[in-house]
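Re-run requested by the PI after the first attempt was lost when the workstation crashed. Everything re-entered from the original request form. Ligand of interest: iron/sulfur cluster.
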Amino acid sequence: MNFTIKKEQLPSFLDVLAKKSAVFVPVEEDSGATIFAPWEGQQLFLEGRTLFSPKFLFRPSQEKIFFFRKQTGSYEISPLDDKKQKIVFGIRPCDTHALNVLDQLFEKYCDCGSDQFYTSRRKNTVLIALQCKGPCENGFCTSMGTSQPVGHDLLFIERGNDFFVTAATERGKRLLGKKFFKPAKDTAPSRKLECQNSLETKNLAQNLYSNFNHPVWKQEGDRCLSCTSCTQVCPTCYCYFIEDNFLFGSDKESERSRQLDSCQLQRFSKVAGNHVFRKSRAARLRQFVLHKLSYYQQHHGLQLCIGCGRCIAACPVDIDLTKIANEIQKDTLGVKK
Ligand code: SF4
Ligand code: SF4
C-alpha cells in the first residue's frame, strides 16, 4: 500500500483533512520554539524534531479532569473527556516510540486502571509519521532503536519533489484520496540515519544502577540549576500533581485539575513531616537519568528514553545524559568515548 504525493500538494491535503478533524502540524513560533499547533495554512517546520513533543496533544501540561458538586451526604462528579477526532501530521519516529511507551504506561500500568483522558485522545487520533532526512542535533535514536516509527497510521518519506507514503493501517489508508495520492509501484526508500550522538547501551540499566555513587552524579549535579527544562521537553515525562479548586455551596461546581510536575524540583519528593528525599540537585539529576535509562527498563522491560536529545538541547548548562551514562559505561565496561 504505497503512494506518492507532490510536496506542493501537502497544504491542500492538510486543508481537506482539517474539514473533517482537528489537524496538528509542526511549526516554528515567533519565539523560535518549535511545537505542534493547529493547522492554519502556516509554514510547516519540517527540518527535524520539534523542541516540544506532540505528547502535549495527549497529555496536556495542565488539564481539568472533572467537576464536582456537593450533594447531601455525597458528591456528584462530572468527568471531562476529550473525544475530539484529531490528526497529527509530521510526528517523528522517535516520538511514535514515546507514545508507545506512554500507551503501555497509561493503558496497563496505572494502579487505578487505564487513564481515560490519555487513552481516549490516543484512540481518536490518527498519526501521520514523517521519516527524518538526517540526524537531529543531540539525538541518539539509533542507539535506542527508535529511528523507525511504530504505531503510526501513515508514513511520509521525503523523496525529491514528492513524499513517498506508506499506509500502515486501514484508517490511514482512508485518508489517501485519489485527488492527491497516486499509487507507487516501487518500494519505500530506505533512510539509514547516522546520529552524531551515541549511547553505549550494553548492560546500561544494570551498570547505571550499580554506580549509584559514581562521582559523575555530583560533578554534573552541582552544575544543575533545577530549572526543570529537561522534564518539560521530555516526551516521556509523565509525573503530575493534582489540584482541587473548591467552591463552597451546593449551587457551586468545584473542579479538579492536574498539572505536569518535575522530579527536578525539591518539593517533588517532599513527604509528611516535611522530609525531602532528594535534597541535592545531584540526587534529583540522578533520579531523572536513572528513571529514563535504568529503573523503568528494569521494572517494565521498556526503555523510557527514546533518544530524542531534547533534554540536552533544552539544558541551559549543557548537561547531557549521554555523557553521564557513557562516562559510567566507560568505567564499567572499559568502552572508549
Ligand atoms: S530523557 Fe532526554 S533524550 Fe531521553 S526521551 Fe527524554 S528528552 Fe529525549
Ligand atoms: S535542564 Fe539542565 S539545568 Fe535544568 S533541571 Fe535539567 S539538567 Fe538541571
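Saved to the shared folder this time. The pocket of iron/sulfur cluster (ligand 1) is lined by residues 233-236, 292, 305-311, 321 (CB under 6 Å).
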